[in-house]
TrEMBL record:
It comes from Sphingomonas trueperi. GO terms for molecular function: aldehyde dehydrogenase [NAD(P)+] activity; glutarate-semialdehyde dehydrogenase (NADP+) activity; succinate-semialdehyde dehydrogenase (NAD+) activity; succinate-semialdehyde dehydrogenase (NADP+) activity. It is an enzyme of class 1 (oxidoreductase). It holds the Pfam family Aldedh. Keywords: NADP, Oxidoreductase. This is Succinate-semialdehyde dehydrogenase/glutarate-semialdehyde dehydrogenase. Belongs to the aldehyde dehydrogenase family. The keyword NADP applies. Residues 2-450 form the Aldehyde dehydrogenase domain. InterPro entries: Ald_DH/histidinol_DH, Ald_DH_C, Ald_DH_CS_CYS, Ald_DH_N, Aldehyde_DH_dom, ALDH_GabD1-like, GABD/Sad-like.
Amino acid sequence: MFEIINPATGETVDRIAELDDAGIEAALARAAAGYKQWRETSIETRTALLGKIADAWEANKQHLAELAVREMGKTITAGLAEVEKCISGFRHYAEHGPTYLAPTAVQTPTGHAVARWLPLGPVLAVMPWNFPYWQAVRFLAPTILAGNVALLKHASSVQGCAAAMEAMARKAGAPEGLFQNLAITSGKVDAIIADKRVAAVTLTGSEGAGAKVAEAAGRALKKVVLELGGSDPFIVMPSADLDAAVKTAVTARVQNAGQSCICSKRMIVHAEVYDAFLEKFVAGMEAVKIGDPMDADTVMGPLSSVQQRDTVLEQVEKAKAAGAKLLTGGAKIDRGGAWMTPGVLVDLDPESDVAKEEIFGPVAAVYKVADIDEAIALANDVPYGLGSSVWTQDEAEVERFARDIEAGMTAVNSLLASVPEAPFGGVKLSGHGRELGPWGLHEFMNLKAVMFGGGKAGD
């Protein structure tokens, strides 16, 4: 039984039954049967369904957003924005599906060939709680377009959101077996990956969870895409628009209560603007409005759970023990639920263990560097390589950052965000493979060469 706890109050708001072994087997059988039918549908049928799913989400936008508030503490404003983003994701693949799946003709020495994108089969997604809808839609929309079918193993704390997603697909007319939510614990995942009816697996989560899923997929010789943790750098150079940089840095650390893989966590600031940046940044963090997540004016609500909040507080204490100074915040708020204040750390030894970790909460570490070489070296001096944000008006510096920062994404003078049109993913311990755009769609498809012309058999 999954117990759903409202992180704003600490109260249990729902209990959801776990799927037993017989239920898992029935779901896999439905997925296999559903795939046989769905893989033969036209692209027009698939894109039409994506449009209808988007319509269903649009019609139930408030309900979906409120579920996210209740289950993981997201503010209502952020919840509505996340639902809107999902709608745009479904509509993006509905609009661009025919282009993304168009065959490509090439000439060969003996004739010609056609490269075609074909589906693989049922895809299992293991998803986290921090963006309960968007993380899953990044997998779901391209899966439907590809002609595959989807199995979702969502985090235990957002099972209501997961069930609502399946309900939206049913409302839109999705055929049986196309999209199923599996209300299971992580201990059931290995056996599902090993099942011959499952073609591939994708995971968004910690590097520990990613390693386990990759190991299981490796044993079964199945394709896997991993989007894991991040400790993204936010680099500010002397030519930057300082006020814009500070405003964005504050947003990066407090949106979703700091619980975002791609929101910058390490502020790396050139010595020429360090003092000015730090003064403004501390003031900005202290001004963040913390309160009822259902209030539209609230900027930051609770963290997703008391356990997650306490993990962040423990990391703050580890940083202080390693010589860092806590300039503001980073403390528990004494009220029911998973509340804390935004924190700013300075003088953290970049070689300390905690400096190498991802702090998945509203705490920033600010570093001073002498030049661009030191900034890039420090940016790369962590095991992660997901995203980055750089602030400069110097085109040569932009090129250096784009070339030399070890990350899957770099935002220039802006907050890094995932969008349906661009590839999303990282390197190093941040995972491998890409989501979104045609790249995410093609990850779980069979690129098949159909050869025409003469030549000997077997050539």
